[in-house]
Design a protein that fits this description.
Elements (H helix, E strand, L loop, with lengths): L47 E6 L6 H17 L5 E6 L4 H13 L4 E4 L8 H9 L4 E4 L9 E5 L1 H16 L7 E6 L5 H14 L4 E7 L5 H15 L4 E6 L2 H13 L15 H9 L5 E4 L1 H16 L3 H7 L2 E3 L7 E6 L1 E4 L5 H5 L6 H4 L5 H7 L3
Parallel strand pairs: 1-2, 1-3, 3-4, 4-5, 5-11, 6-7, 6-8
Antiparallel strand pairs: 9-12, 10-11
């Protein structure tokens, strides 16, 4: 896969999430006219949004992204719009077929979270030829993408790397760590890796580094077992894991090797299992990304694009990114937060991703009590 050109960040990428929420009502003008009542949308409220998500190993897609997008589209279209959802189960060929089916069915707009950003480019081109806008969601696909909404992925990696070093403090350049990066077919993984390396390279000894096929926890577990054999379990001072699912596999490998005091391990996505591991001290941190903000932004962009609300669309995409095939793609990059024991209440609980009762049950009750989570 060809490397992505760097994202061009602006100050908005690290602004607080609360300042970035926009709604379709927030803009005084829609379309090309100066008054929302004068706008002449290309489509009414009876629109069909195609949603293509990449896999189910990460629970966020079914649990958060799809229902949030569906509900936001209903809200924005007076309950007349609909979302057609397909998940590719990490199969690029299956996703290509799903994309073609949506083209054949003449959906009005497609939100695409690509399994393989490079191989899907031909399908994006076909959608363009059919007059169907494609908005890249969460991962930047190649081809003539109309817009992109995601998180500042290099910043995600920087936050992970920086927080890992803080957890290892005091840190020595001879300290050995393992890097468990994401899937090589996912452009985000390369950006997470680049961001993390900007913090870790030179600060520690990256003894082993893996690109993990399909982001699968079992693959990360196997990779970690290999790293333990090569480095020696007592010599591993920290583990960079690009997401929470892989962090779970890493914990299994370390525990199977007899480790009782785990080294600091990073993650991403604030999955429930990961939050519970953080509470229990098995995982040091995760990167919390506001799925509601990302998903609602994607829905707003899709509806604005289809209905010809050009000024609203532009207000939602005030940043730009480059893919290997196209430059200056309108974009919105949502900010991120390092989630640790210290801020569980202010992040996932405050945003109603989870309730305390979801996290603090069974074996985690005592640990939660120590943290004051009740």
């Amino acid at each position: 896969m060809r490397p992505l050109r760097p994202l061009r960040r602006t100050a908005i990428a690290v602004a607080s999430a609360s300042t970035m929420t926009l709604s379709l009502a927030a803009c005084g003008a829609l379309g090309v006219t100066g008054d929302s009542t004068e706008a002449s949308p290309t489509k009414g409220n009876d629109i069909t949004v195609g949603l293509l998500l990449p896999e189910t190993a990460n629970t966020r897609y079914d649990k958060f992204d799809y229902p949030i997008i569906r509900n936001k589209v209903l809200e924005l279209t007076d309950k007349q719009g609909r979302v057609v959802y397909k998940n590719a189960d990490a199969d690029a060929s299956k996703q290509a077929s799903q994309l073609q089916q949506m083209i054949d069915d003449q959906v009005d707009v497609i939100l695409l979270d690509a399994v393989d950003a490079h191989s899907i480019a031909g399908g994006v081109e076909k959608a363009k030829e059919a007059g169907i806008p494609v908005i890249a969601y969460d991962r930047l696909a190649e081809g003539p993408i109309d817009a992109y909404v995601s998180f500042d992925n290099e910043l995600v990696g920087e936050v992970q790397g920086r927080t890992l070093l803080e957890a290892m403090n005091p840190v020595d350049s001879s300290d050995k760590i393992v890097m468990m990066n994401g899937s090589p077919t996912d452009p985000n993984a390369g950006q997470f890796k680049a961001g993390a390396l900007s913090e870790l390279k030179g600060a520690v000894d990256i003894a082993k580094s893996y690109d993990t096929k399909d982001w699968k926890p079992e693959n990360a577990e196997d990779n970690m077992a290999q790293a333990i054999k090569s480095i020696g379990v007592n010599n591993i001072k920290g583990v960079y894991s690009a997401n929470d699912g892989m962090a779970g596999g890493i914990v299994k490998a370390l525990e199977a090797a007899g480790v009782t005091k785990l080294p600091p391990i990073t993650g991403q996505d604030a999955e429930l299992d990961a939050v519970q591991r953080i509470v229990a001290g098995e995982q040091f941190m995760s990167v919390y990304k506001s799925y509601p903000l990302e998903a609602e932004s994607a829905a707003e962009m899709a509806v604005a694009k289809v209905q010809g609300h050009d000024i609203q669309f532009d207000s939602l995409t005030q940043q730009q990114v480059d893919s290997p095939t196209h430059k200056d793609i309108p974009a919105r990059l949502v900010p991120v937060v390092a989630l640790t024991k210290k801020n569980i209440e202010e992040t996932v609980i405050a945003d109603e991703i989870y309730q305390v009762s979801d996290i603090c049950k069974g074996e985690y009750k005592a640990d939660c009590s120590k943290l004051g989570l009740k």
